[in-house]
DNA sequence: GTAAAGAATGAAATGCGTTTCAAGTCAAGC
DNA sequence: GCTTGACTTGAAACGCATTTCATTCTTTAC
């Protein structure tokens, strides 16, 4: 396949001139420019993207590390990321980590290898020191709260949302507020926040219960059985996902309880499921977060300002019941 | 940052030897190998991935073109693609097309530019000739039925599934079988197949109706209103998505009809929604398709055999009602 | 009329590995 | 003792475009 040298030779100009035409430099004589373009067309020439990347030291590609187990709560986020990246003429490398630390840190070396210009970290298992160590090799932005101040982040203020939800439930007079989460508090910061928010909000002796390891509909059914078979039946439940909430609702019905008559339930991530079943769900506006994360990652001030975006989003509380 | 030259100099060997160490060539003296590795560690050296790509003429990256409007029915597919690609040590560039032909064809030039080793095409608007023309520059595999025999494809046999569904509904004795789809028949092959399957299966004069432009829950509610406000109320509905089906069920209830007492409904893509609401849904096993598509794309026989995988999957028909 | 600014262009260095080719060392085989 | 094959190793070509520097030719300005 033809390269820039062939084009230069055939057009009777130097390689530099061809490069200038390619990069739309001013100061190229019109006739030569046209000649070069004609030759490029004739030879069906394309630049070699890898040579460009090597030469320019820039790839116009960003990497996005996502756990990608199977539940797709990253969909909205990725959507936002793709949209903004496309706008800024960047491409997106999707890096599934399956929550494995080894895989995650191997992705960070892509920066060292100059294969990407920056990394967006969604939920991850990396230790702050690991991130810091590798952020020397390139830009990194977290889409989750990052415990290290030095790593720029754009993230939903989950804690504020949790506080808001628990306060809302408390003010409504519920006394048995159960809540669920996914990974256990040791490996999941958001689980810790959830527990902490509960403890800070509800200081009285409530008969609440906490359940972790909830990820999907079946898990919801499982913990629903635990909740409604129990002597202490919840009057409000705050789940960590709409699917889980749906499972709990289904389970409740088999035990003779029905939503919304017998209990209040609040989901998370605001998926079509909460819309369909008509329960409120906390919406973190992940699309916006994705877009902002890309903007921050690719902004010129990245290196200097190191902003820590803090986004405070509120729970959607108008229930639109299925009736 | 250190490059291979620096390493060679410091280790007192030639560049070639360093390269051999990097690529784990046999036939490098143990002492030199260790020395080189020590120096690489000392200098905190990393290969420049772009130089490697340029030099080897291979990127170990594949591109996946997805419409990425907003509904995430590509999630499972992408999951499969990521999994298999990761297994084969390939990386995945996610290329959103927003169903725009210009964008889609711009992505195909990535092959010419040697920036990716192959392309996976999901739902798209490209003309067969466009695909064929560009498949000369690299490997392309379609994850949808491709009208051109020369383009290798791995795809669900939607037509067979549609036939199966309509036959199932016909055999159950339904007479007013409404069905929905997304894009209109001019731009969407699957809409055409749906209509064709209906016509081939149900030759009698049924009072069925067809509705397009259905994409989400709200659309489902909208066409549900049309269906149940009408004098001809359906006794069976085949939708083109679980969200749409959920919308129709919700709408039906506002009109005094309820599922499953008054009508049968079948969804598509087998998402958690059909599980939650308890209606059957056609499952195309997109994860498996994604995996197979990657395997085909990266297999050595790709160039020679040009197989057209045809996967025949069946409708999930066991309903597990919410009740 | 001449200096200064602007336009146009090519040679060569640069970014960084991979791979081929030739050559040299050393031990086993006859 | 000599051939043969297995190891080792480095020089140099190759993959391909970008960019700096120097040079030459025009204009414009005073």
Descriptive keywords:
homodimer; 323 residues; alpha/beta; Rossmann fold; 3 domains; 4-stranded parallel beta sheet; 14 helices; 11 strands; DNA-binding
List the helices and strands and how they pair.
The structure is a homodimer of 323-residue chains.
Chain A: H1 4-11, H2 15-22, H3 30-43, H4 49-56, E1 61-66, H5 75-87, E2 91-96, H6 101-112, E3 118-121, H7 128-134, E4 139-142, E5 153-156, H8 158-171, E6 177-180, H9 189-201, E7 210-211, H10 217-229, E8 236-238, H11 242-254, E9 264-268, H12 272-277, E10 281-282, H13 286-298, H14 302-305, E11 308-311
Parallel strand pairs in A: 1-2, 1-3, 3-4, 5-11, 6-7, 6-8, 8-9, 9-10
Helix pairs in contact in A: 1-2, 1-3, 5-13, 8-9, 10-11
The first copy, chain A, binds a DNA duplex (30 and 30 nucleotides) through residues 3-5, 13-20, 22-23, 26-29, 32, 47-48, 50-57.
Describe the structure.
The first copy, chain A, is of the alpha/beta class. The first copy, chain A, folds into 3 domains: 4-45, Orthogonal Bundle (434 Repressor (Amino-terminal Domain)); 58-156 and 286-311, 3-Layer(aba) Sandwich (Rossmann fold), CATH 3.40.50.2300; 158-282, Response regulator (Rossmann fold, 3-Layer(aba) Sandwich), CATH 3.40.50. In chain A, 45% of the residues lie in helices and 14% in strands. Chain A contains 14 helices and 11 strands. Chain A has a 5-stranded parallel β-sheet with strand order 7-6-8-9-10, with helices on both faces. A 4-stranded parallel β-sheet of chain A has the order 2-1-3-4, sandwiched between helices. In chain A, helix 9 (189-201) links the parallel strand 6 and strand 7 (210-211). The longest helix of chain A has 14 residues, at 30-43. Mean pLDDT of chain A is 88; it is low at 316-323. At the A-B interface, helix 4, helix 5, strand 2, helix 6 and helix 11 of A face helix 4, helix 5, strand 2, helix 6 and helix 11 of B. Chain A binds a DNA duplex (30 and 30 nucleotides) through residues 3-5, 13-20, 22-23, 26-29, 32, 47-48, 50-57.
């Amino acid at each position: 396949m033809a390269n820039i040298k062939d084009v230069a030779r055939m057009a009777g100009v130097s390689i530099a001139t061809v490069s200038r035409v390619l990069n739309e430099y001013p100061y190229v004589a019109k006739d030569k420019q046209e000649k070069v373009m004609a030759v490029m067309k004739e030879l069906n020439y394309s630049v070699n993207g890898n040579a460009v990347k090597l030469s320019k030291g820039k790839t116009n590609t960003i990497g996005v590390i996502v756990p990608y187990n199977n539940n797709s709560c990253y969909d909205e986020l990725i959507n936002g990321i793709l949209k903004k990246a496309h706008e800024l003429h960047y491409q997106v490398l999707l890096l599934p980590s399956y929550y494995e630390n080894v895989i995650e840190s191997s992705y960070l070396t892509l920066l060292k290898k100059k294969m990407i210009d920056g990394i967006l970290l969604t939920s991850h298992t990396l230790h702050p020191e690991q991130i810091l160590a590798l952020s020397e090799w390139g830009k990194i932005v977290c889409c989750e709260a990052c415990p290290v101040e030095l790593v720029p982040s754009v993230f939903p203020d989950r804690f504020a949302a949790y506080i808001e939800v628990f306060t809302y439930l408390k003010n409504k007079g519920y006394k048995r507020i159960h809540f669920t989460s996914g990974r256990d508090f040791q490996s999941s910061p958001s689980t810790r926040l959830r527990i902490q928010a509960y403890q800070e909000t509800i200081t009285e002796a409530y008969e609440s219960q906490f359940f972790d390891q909830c990820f999907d509909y079946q898990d919801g059914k499982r913990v629903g059985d635990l909740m409604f078979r129990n002597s202490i039946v919840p009057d409000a439940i705050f789940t960590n996902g709409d699917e889980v909430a749906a499972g709990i609702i289904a389970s409740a019905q088999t035990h003779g309880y029905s939503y919304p008559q017998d209990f209040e339930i609040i989901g998370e991530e605001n998926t079509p499921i909460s819309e369909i079943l008509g329960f409120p769900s906390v919406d973190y506006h992940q699309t916006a977060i994705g877009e902002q994360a890309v903007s921050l990652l690719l902004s010129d001030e990245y290196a200097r300002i190191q902003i820590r975006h803090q986004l405070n989003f509120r729970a959607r509380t108008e229930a639109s019941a299925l009736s």
